[in-house]
Amino acid sequence: MLDQWLIGGILIAMLILLVLDKWRYDLVAMMALLTAAVLGLVPTSEVFSGFGNAAVITVAAVLIISQALWRSGVVDALAGWMKNIGSNGFLQLVALTSVTTVCSAFISNTGTMAIMIPVALQLAQNSGNNPSKLLMPMAFGSLLGGAITMVGTPPNIIISDIRRDTVGDAFGIFDFTPVGLGIAVAGLLFMWLLSQWLVPAKSGRSKSQSLYDVSSYLTELYVPEKSSFIGETLFELENRSEDDFVIVALQRGEQRWSAPARYLRLKADDVLIVEANAETIQQVIDGTGLELNADEEIDDRFLKSDDITVLEGIVGHDSRLIGRSAGDIRLRSRYGINVLGVARQGQKLGTVLANIRFKPGDVLLLQGDAETLNDVFQRFGCFPLAQRSLRIGSSKKLLLPLGIFVSTIVAAALGLLSVPVAFSLAAGLMVLTNILPLRELYDSIDWPIIVLLGATIPLGSALERSGAADTIANAVLVLSDGSPEFIAVGLLLLVTLILSNIVNNAAAAVLMAPIGISMANSFGASIDPFLMAVAIGAAVPFLTPIGHQSNILVMGPGGYSFSDYWKLGLPLSLLVCAVALVLIMWVWPLY
């Protein structure tokens, strides 16, 4: 009994820390695992066994394959087709959500959304439709798509592996499809018919222009011959103010430099284009002898050149920028990148940018060398909002990755190879054929998810070994006492869904699966309907932006607040639970 209280306390503490979001979830899970090991709840030989688990290897392989398919332009080919949709908002909604759902059944939800969000924004801008009406249904569509196949989402891979450990036979790659496809179709139909009224129309991003009206924050400063700052560098000028003072361009005669190098020295008659508030501008003028030059209206032409561009991007859920500011990272001095704007939930956060600590879903406006910007986005885990040029080469380049992927699916579905082996082999072939360069191999793996799975799998085993899973299962059965057995399955589905909206959905699957197995054993029933209930509940966290990466990615561009998600997410969750329960009982009978 003591072991049950200890493991229960550790898991409750872990869940509280995950909800508070003060530390990243992989660190929290690892600390929980080590605490359980110190207390003797996890045997020494099993502490790090999770990292060798087949489910962890499969998740890593699927992420590599997803990155290879993304890089080869397979999804871009579908995105390019979207240009033919027209300006009808309903048709845009149907097409975008359908493509997102189908792609998410086979590749990473996040990778799909990274491509489809810019497509949706461009369609909305060209047609004058509000993008907030498109982005949330797309995010939810990606979650529905993930439930269709075993490789669509990490919880399905975990549940399949748990079944193999329990009964000796894993779920097949398409065993999830009857239920997953059913809830996907029901969910899409629901959103097509009702999301127009349930998704709030947001005004954070204009229908016709970028989120930021940058020109309203730019000022021209003229360097007169009498200025004491002639001969000094731009670096020294920027350091004259403790507040935000960013030099975004330098005009010298017929020459113009966007995002000029900080070592350039000022000359007489130079014109500086700076971003700063009025008080800071006045402070710099008083201290340097520069003059305000308001002869012409300033516009975005000063921000770009042949090499310099301005790009918007979303701070990802695992971005290295989270909790840090531009000043901390020294984006300007280390990378030559200017932060021109930051928006949160669709609202610009003002002009004092250097000390703003970034959060998941923030939208950034960055200026710098185009190639450097792409590297910075990839390095720090951000997703560009501008639709990039399609990476579609010849049909041969598309056929090779598609051929490898389809062959993998067929081999796994026919049982010729186990899913972990098939997908690991496919990942290797993607690298060997240079579809995915070797240098991008490890960057394509979401390492926090891998660490989370490796840490929580032994905790799930400890929950079962201590008897805590049986105790929780019996408590759930008491709640459903006297009711038909399917009520217990429905309760398990509902609790898992609620938990997946609070913590990472992979962790929810690991923690709830042992409870589901204990409930099945109490009934003397098959574990399959209970495991399927956990899989569906973990796959569809619609209620909060923190429930899944896809929800976070649309928060900034859509201008959504935290409370906007449940307006569509709550009725959609109830519908999914009802449809899933019927399909589970039909496809996976209790006895």
Number of domains: 2
**Net shape:** elongated
Task: Give the low-confidence spans.
Answer: 204-209, 389-395
Fraction of residues in helix:
55-70%
User: What's the total number of strands?
Assistant: 10
- Strands in their spatial order, largest beta sheet: 3-2-4-1-5
Oligomer: single chain
Number of helices: 23
Give the class from helix and strand content and strand pairing. alpha+beta
Strand content: 5-15%
Describe the sheet with the most strands.
Answer: 5 strands, antiparallel
Radius of gyration from the CA trace? Answer: 26 Å
Summarize model confidence as the mean pLDDT.
Answer: 83
- N-C termini distance: 31 Å
Q: What does this protein structure show overall?
A:
A hairpin with a 2-residue loop joins strand 2 and strand 3 (255-258). The protein has 591 residues and is α+β, with helices and mostly antiparallel strands. Helix content is 55%, strand content 8%. The longest helix has 23 residues, at 565-587. A five-stranded antiparallel β-sheet has the order 3-2-4-1-5, with no helix packed on it. Strands 8-7-9-6-10 form a five-stranded antiparallel β-sheet, with helices on both faces. It folds into two domains: 2-206 and 421-587, no CATH class; 224-289, Alpha-Beta Plaits (2-Layer Sandwich).
